[in-house]
Amino acid sequence: xxxxxxxxxxxxxxxxxxxxxxxxxxxxxxxxxxxxxxxxxxxxxxxxxxxxxxxxxxxxxxxxxxxxxxxxxxxxxxxxxxxxxxxxxxxxxxxxxxxxxxxxxxxxxxxxxxxxxxxxxxxxxxxxxxxxxxxxxxxxxxxxxxxxxxxxxxxxxxxxxxxxxxxxxxxxxxxxxxxxxxxxxxxxxxxxxxxxxxxxxxxxxxxxxxxxxxxxxxxxxxxxxxxxxxxxxxxxxxxxxxxxxxxxxxxxxxxxxxxxxxx
Length: 263
Fold this sequence. Notes:
The protein contains 5 helices and 10 strands.
């Protein structure tokens, strides 16, 4: 049978999602090791979107095939017992064999959190990107609206990005301040390597008034990563949610208060 799982994780201690030949400390490695104990056979999972070193997830989705007959609750409990505290399975569901965590996805969303205050935080270390210089969240939001729509995002992807096409469709982009935290949220059909961190880098330069608001659209039009902004750190990046066709009935991720209540 094919099983789909929802997974959340703190990526601080991991070398990214993807299993690597000489690196055991990956999220995929931890998940597959835990599931293998429950299934009593080796398990290989396929994820909706690979995340880099230090990047977190609220609603990662994976699927795997297994001959083991387990109830969804047993997959959840068994996996979580064998996972480190920084990784947790939030739901499990038996799905149609046509479901594919990556290729069935219609769209994805990310959050990027910025702690904007003069001093760093011990509690938010590696959970939010610290920027001690004042940021203008309103002008960041205004500048980001130029990126909505279908565009060639060559200027906003990593130099080594292996995607066949740089064209992506951004459905929504918003920047809002919550006290000392600034939250960037982006929803698109798919993302390129380092795309969100490069967008964040451009918008933060604009928020510091080092660049005018129209710089975001100028960078986009240049279609040249060498002319873009600085890649923002991974600390504040969260893979938030994946959307699938309704027929698969994939549940949304649980509500996790990344922005502290009361802000």
